């Protein structure tokens, strides 16, 4: 008695795996220049190294302050107030670093790309259409939308294949369209947009307060030395070189982060972005987004932050590989290394001769003259014929001075030789 066994599970499973597309996380197929951490939970810009630099610029002076200034002031104040000097600066430093990470490690408001461009809407008037031909449609580069009763122009993004919403711009560094794009900050390594502008301003303003705090207590320590030893302020400074370094460092830093804080206070009060302000967009026209000072501050600090339009941990199928190309009735694998397009011309070197003749490898002579009065010829190199799958042949007609160059790649194509 013969028993027919069922097919093995491994064989059938292998066939199903070939038909089932491979699933990847969204961040693994991301087309922008961003860098992801912890499985797509944190998204940074391509210049993530600047984040670590900013952390060092914050932590290093605070560590020096705690070791050489705050530690000396612990016993100089009654009721353990000296301990608060060190505790406050440590807690405040952690707060500033958290704001930095919340600014640089979250989605700033990236608009998802379209897989295909939108359908054309208007006819391209620049191209004449003959009778019997279908008019060519094109995408308008600019559209007009109404915002608070005013006309605002929005542009089409060729990279993301979409019309950018109002106040949206494409960041060339991160290669993304960002809602309410303010600028790309190199110090936080991220775009500043609708979803992280609040944290960016809080980071800059908190860093300013931290610099003022360290600057002030460095001077307090210098004055305590001056009064305790009954000496001049210059001699007191010499006794604490760490305070001198911190005073200079924080003084220069306040000009930078403090200046940014004041500038962005102006932008918030007028409801502008840095990008709009630098382009002088509202110098001659009214700002359609201005809601008054109170309304503008409320929009930034007392409105809920919209959810991200991207789920970086969602499972998406891997994009299929491009199909093989068909050439001369046969399939050609697209993964095969392509011969550079300039191989044909790089191996055809111009040869200037005294006589107005051009001789090829087969001995055929074709007479040609240039417009400059000098004779020229193009001599086919013998090593071209050694290229696999490429066959060159010269054919000149006897009745004229022009000929054709035949190129065979699974077939033959005639290219006129001038």
Give a quick rundown of the structure.
This protein has helices spanning 9-19, 49-73, 81-104, 197-229, 233-239, 241-270, 274-278, 293-301, 343-346, and strands at 23-25, 35-37, 42-44, 122-123, 137-138, 142-147, 150-157, 162-163, 169-171, 176-178, 183-185, 190-192, 315-317, 325-327, 330-332, 348-351, 357-359, 365-367, 377-380, 391-396, 403-408, 412-417.
Task: Give a structural overview.
The protein is an alpha+beta fold. The protein has 3 domains: 23-113 and 172-317, no CATH class; 135-171, no CATH class; 333-417, no CATH class. It has helices at residues 9-19, 49-73, 81-104, 197-229, 233-239, 241-270, 274-278, 293-301, 343-346; strands spanning 23-25, 35-37, 42-44, 122-123, 137-138, 142-147, 150-157, 162-163, 169-171, 176-178, 183-185, 190-192, 315-317, 325-327, 330-332, 348-351, 357-359, 365-367, 377-380, 391-396, 403-408, 412-417. The strands form 10 sheets. A 3-stranded antiparallel β-sheet has the order 6-7-8, with no helix packed on it. It has a 3-stranded antiparallel β-sheet with strand order 20-21-22, with no helix packed on it. The chain has a two-stranded antiparallel sheet with strand order 1-13. Strand 9 (169-171) and strand 10 form a beta hairpin. The chain is elongated and about 100 Å long. It starts with 8 loop residues before the first helix and ends with a strand. The model is unreliable at 1-17 and 327-418 (pLDDT under 50).
């Amino acid at each position: 008695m013969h028993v027919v066994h069922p097919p093995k599970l491994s064989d059938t499973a292998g066939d199903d795996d070939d038909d089932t597309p491979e699933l990847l996380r969204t961040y693994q197929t991301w087309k922008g220049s961003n860098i992801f951490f912890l499985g797509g939970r944190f998204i940074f810009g391509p210049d993530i190294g600047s984040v670590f630099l900013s952390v060092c610029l914050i932590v290093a002076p605070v560590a020096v302050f705690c070791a050489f200034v705050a530690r000396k002031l612990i016993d100089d104040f009654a009721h353990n107030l000296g301990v608060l000097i060190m505790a406050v600066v440590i807690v405040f430093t952690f707060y500033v670093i958290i704001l930095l990470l919340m600014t640089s490690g979250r989605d700033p408001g990236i608009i998802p790309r379209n897989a295909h461009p939108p359908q054309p809407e208007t006819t391209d008037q620049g191209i004449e259409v003959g009778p019997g031909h279908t008019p060519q449609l094109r995408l308008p580069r600019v559209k007009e939308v109404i915002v608070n009763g005013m006309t605002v122009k929005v542009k089409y993004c060729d990279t993301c294949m979409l019309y950018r919403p109002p106040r949206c711009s494409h960041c060339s560094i991160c290669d993304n369209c960002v809602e309410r794009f303010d600028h790309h900050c190199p110090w936080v390594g991220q775009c500043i947009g609708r979803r992280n502008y609040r944290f960016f301003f809080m980071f800059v303003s908190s860093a300013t307060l931290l610099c003022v705090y360290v600057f002030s207590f460095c001077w307090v320590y210098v004055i305590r030395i001056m009064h305790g030893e009954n000496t001049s302020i210059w001699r007191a400074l010499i006794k604490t070189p760490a305070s001198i370094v911190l005073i200079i460092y924080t003084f220069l830093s306040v000009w930078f982060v403090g200046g940014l804080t004041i500038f962005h206070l102006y932008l918030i009060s007028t409801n502008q972005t840095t990008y709009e302000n630098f382009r002088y967009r509202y110098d001659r026209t009214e700002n359609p987004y201005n809601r008054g000072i109170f309304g503008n501050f409320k929009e930034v600090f007392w409105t809920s932050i919209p959810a991200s339009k991207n789920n970086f941990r969602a499972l998406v199928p891997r994009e299929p590989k491009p199909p093989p190309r068909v050439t001369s009735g046969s399939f050609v694998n697209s993964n095969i290394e392509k011969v550079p397009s300039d191989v044909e011309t790089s191996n055809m070197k111009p040869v200037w001769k005294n006589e107005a003749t051009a001789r090829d490898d087969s001995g055929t002579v074709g007479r040609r003259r240039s417009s400059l009065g000098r004779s020229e010829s193009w001599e086919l190199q013998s090593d071209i014929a050694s290229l696999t799958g490429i066959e060159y042949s010269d054919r000149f007609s006897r009745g004229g001075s022009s000929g054709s160059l035949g190129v065979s790649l699974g077939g033959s194509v005639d290219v006129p030789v001038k």
